[in-house]
Design brief:
It is a single chain. The chain is mainly α. It has a domain of about 160 residues: MetI-like fold. Helices cover about 75% and strands about 0% of the residues. It is built from 13 helices and no strands. Helix 10 packs across helix 11. It starts with a helix and ends in an 8-residue tail after the last helix.
């Protein structure tokens, strides 16, 4: 765990450098976007000098890291406000969406995967494999509009977009959870099938343990570590997928903010958003490592 904590710093620095380089490689001038095509050359150069965009890239990067060392993410070009403030207003919505999607995915995929493993080649097993295939094969930019057509426009059960109440989170969270559910169903089924044939389960059954205890206490606990590992990795995918999903459902989170910032060539805001999402991703992975050590103490020396 200590080694993982020390790895955060180079990870964050590497992500920051890559984002900085990619942003400046994208065509488009944020100053011209802000002032419009009718702005004079004098106004353009003046604003570029004020924002520090007239300096060499190496100096801009050094200035960015100097501010970052003091906890300053800079000022948003588009919002004319501190980047930290803009992100702080949007981050709770993204975290709430990811949490609900994670709850949907784990709450449906793990029981379905266990049920499929307990009854191989049954109707439940075939249904689980169909759900898994659909979840992996259908991208969020397709599943999202399909869910809107069925549940919002067709049936009228759920709102289409926005964040005005608990009902608004269901469709975007289900869109995010679909791909993760497909992967988790397949992984849980496979891990349970391997575990159910283990010797210690036959011993537990011979000692008179109930079927529920054998499945939950003995089998599922052994099968959980690879599932937990994938859940931790997929949590980062949820944050990446939130960029598309939040745009589809007009969800006021960091993902939609990234799209807006890229469109405005708002360098400080894009860097701040990606850095924030990267830190959340690293934090989730550290928490996953901690949970794995609780499930399997033998991993403590490796984490």
């Amino acid at each position: 765990m200590t080694r993982r904590l020390f790895s955060i710093v180079p990870t964050v620095l590497g992500v920051s450098v890559l984002v900085f380089a990619f942003l400046h490689a994208v065509p488009g001038d944020p100053v011209e976007i802000m002032l419009g095509e009718s702005a004079s050359a004098r106004d353009v150069e003046g604003l570029r000098r004020t924002l520090g965009l007239d300096r060499p890239l190496a100096l801009q990067l050094a200035t960015y890291f100097g501010r970052l060392a003091h906890g300053d993410l800079g000022v948003s070009i588009a919002f004319r406000a501190p980047v930290a403030t803009v992100i702080r207003e949007r981050l709770p919505a993204t975290l709430a969406l990811a949490a609900v999607a994670l709850l949907f995915a784990v709450g449906t995929a793990v029981p379905l995967g266990v049920a499929a493993a307990l009854r191989p080649r049954s109707f439940v097993d075939r249904a689980a494999r169909l759900v898994s295939l659909a979840g992996v094969a259908i991208p969020s930019f397709v599943s999202g509009p399909l869910l809107v057509l069925v549940f919002a426009i067709g049936l009228g059960w759920l709102p289409v977009s926005g964040n005005d109440g608990p009902a608004h989170v269901i469709l975007p969270a289900a869109t995010l959870a679909l791909g993760m559910s497909g992967l988790l169903v397949r992984l849980t089924r496979s891990a349970m099938l391997d575990t159910l044939s283990a010797d210690h389960l036959r011993t537990a059954r011979a000692k008179g343990a109930s079927a529920a205890r054998v499945t939950i206490v003995h089998a599922l606990r052994v099968a959980l570590p690879p599932v937990v590992t994938v859940v931790g990795l997929q949590a980062g995918a949820l944050l990446a997928g939130a960029i598309v999903t939040e745009t589809i459902f007009a969800w006021p989170g960091v993902g939609r903010l990234v799209v807006q910032a890229i469109g405005a060539r708002d360098y400080p805001l894009v860097q701040g958003c990606v850095l924030t999402l990267g830190l959340v991703y690293v934090g989730v992975n550290l928490f996953t490592d901690f949970v794995l050590t609780l499930l399997d103490p033998r991993l403590r020396d490796d984490v």
